[in-house]
Amino acid sequence: MPGPGGGLHLTDRAFDFCGFAAGDRVLDAGCGYGVTGRYLSDEFGIRVVGIDISIDRAVDRNRRHGTGRPSSVFPELVQARIPGLPFEEDTFKGIFCECVFSLVQEKSSCLGEFYRILRPDGHLVLSDLYIPEKYLSAVRQYQGEGPFTSCMEGAMGIIDLIRILESAGFTITLMEDHTRFLKQLAGQIVFEYGSLDRFWDALPGAAGCGRLTHMCRTGSLKLGYGLFVATKYH
User: Fold this and answer.
1) Domain spans of the chain?
2) Pairing between strand 118-131 and 224-231?
3) 86/124 Cα distance (integer angstroms)
4) Which of 43, 49, 185, 230 is the most buried (most CB within 10 A)?
5) Distance of alpha carbon 148 from alpha carbon 137, whole angstroms
6) Domain 9-231 belongs to what topology?
7) How crowded is the C-beta side of 26, counted as CA atoms within 13 Å?
8) Is-contact 105 62, C-beta < 8 A?
9) DSSP 43-64
10) What is the rounded (10 degree) CA torsion for 114, 119, 124, 125?
11) What is the mean pLDDT of the chain?
12) DSSP state at residue 157
């Protein structure tokens, strides 16, 4: 399946903005295949710890690169479901959470854990879908209907995202709209699947998708895509 909107362009942008340095310890939250972790490790010398509900994909990717062991990208791979983060306080200089936060059911608890494990002056990088304000009144009645079947179901409005981040103790230091990358992603989807309809049908849980996913599919809801950096200040 195609990767997150913007690919590694937004990873680059966040890295430059946050001023991470070689040797910094960073968490890749929801690491998946380990694309972000490999990039940060190979390009910048970052010590990346990966966490995901399943670490098999990251391990397999490392093996395909000829290492035979997960430590080539991640000095540590942890299998856990967010927000269950088995790390000490003030552990990480940064957290990258790319196209993952919209899938998290317990968002407030997740941000509380992110805040706890970040060092003072550490940065949380979120890149994800969001619901433009003009659609919020139409979709609020359907939000929280049940477990998310896709990232569309868990997307938030900008104001709601700001509030939940600030409630967790963060200061928002960067907000950028990168919705243009969704058009690139749509083109990639058509190339790989033959049509957008075939892509929607291939999504996990497509047969029982929620109302917001259906609205996206029919074009009555058009999501945005943003990059957000939230900083832990003391």
Assistant:
1) 9-231
2) antiparallel
3) 17
4) 230
5) 19
6) Rossmann fold (3.40.50)
7) 32
8) no
9) HH--EEEEEES--HHHHHHHHH
10) -130
11) 83
12) E
